[in-house]
Amino acid sequence: MAEVTAVSDSNFEQEVLKAEGPVLVDFWAPWCGPCKMIAPVVEKLAERFEGRLKVCKVNTDESPQTAGKLGIQGIPTLMVMKGGQEVERLVGFMPEPALVEKIEPHLG
């Protein structure tokens, strides 16, 4: 099973911004219904792109600084980061095929 890394304000820079390859970051909160719906999809993406894409989750309730810095307005927000830069932002629930279509162009 591919790993989804829980990331917080304290390790976001290390885990995401300084990561070698592309990183998919799922900004979510425990009270958010659509976040719960997209969680299994995010886990599937981690498995599908294992070795090509690092997948992380940021609980916006526990890490409001990171969400604030990146201008996260609504959740779930999925962000693809590459070399410390945002290359794709997807807001709201999306089915797996739509996410794959948006993420694949950013993979090596």
TrEMBL record:
One GO CC term, this protein: cytosol
Presence of keyword Transmembrane: no
Residue(s) at site: Deprotonates C-terminal active site Cys: 26
SUPFAM superfamilies with a match to the protein in the record: Thioredoxin-like
Keyword Chaperone: no
Disulfide bonds: 32-35
Listed transmembrane segments: none
A Pfam family recorded for this sequence: Thioredoxin
Annotated site residues (Contributes to redox potential value) in this chain: 33-34
PROSITE patterns: THIOREDOXIN_1 (PS00194), THIOREDOXIN_2 (PS51352)
Recorded superkingdom: Bacteria
Protein name stated in the entry: Thioredoxin
Gene: trxA
